Amino acid sequence: MSNFEWFLLIVVVIVVPLIVAVVVTLWTIDQANKRKRANRADPQIGVKRKAAVPPEEVEARKAERRRRQVAEGIVPDDDPDSPTPSPESDDVSRETSSVTDASRNG
After folding, report:
1. 34-52: per-residue pLDDT in tens?
2. Is residue 60 assigned to a domain?
3. What angle do CA 45, 25, 5 make, to 5 degrees?
4. How far out from the chain centre does Cα 13 lie?
5. Rounded to a whole number, what is the largest CA-CA distance in the chain?
6. Which of 6, 21, 22, 103 is 20 to 30 Å from the Cα of 84, by its Cα?
7. How many domains are there within the chain?
C-alpha cells in the first residue's frame, strides 16, 4: 500500500468516526445543560414520573367500560365481578397472550 492509501485508511476509519463521536457527545452534553432543573434526575432517587392517568380515573374508566358492555349485551349483568373481555384490559400481560398464541399455532 502506498502512503496515500495509508493516510486515507487512517483518516476514514479512525479520525472521521472519532470526530463524529466527539460532536455527538458535545451536543448531548449541551442538551442536558439546557434542560429545566425540575426535570433533571436526582441521583439519590432517580427520575420520578407522574402517572399518565390517576388510579381513580382508571377505575372509573373500567366501570364505564363494564356498564357499556353490559348495555350492549357483551357481558351478562348477573355477575358484576366477571372479567371484562376487551383488548384494552390490563388483566393479561402481553407475554402471556403471546405465549398462548404461540402454543395455539404450533
Report:
1. 876 666 666 555 556 666 8
2. yes
3. 150
4. 35
5. 87
6. 103
7. 1
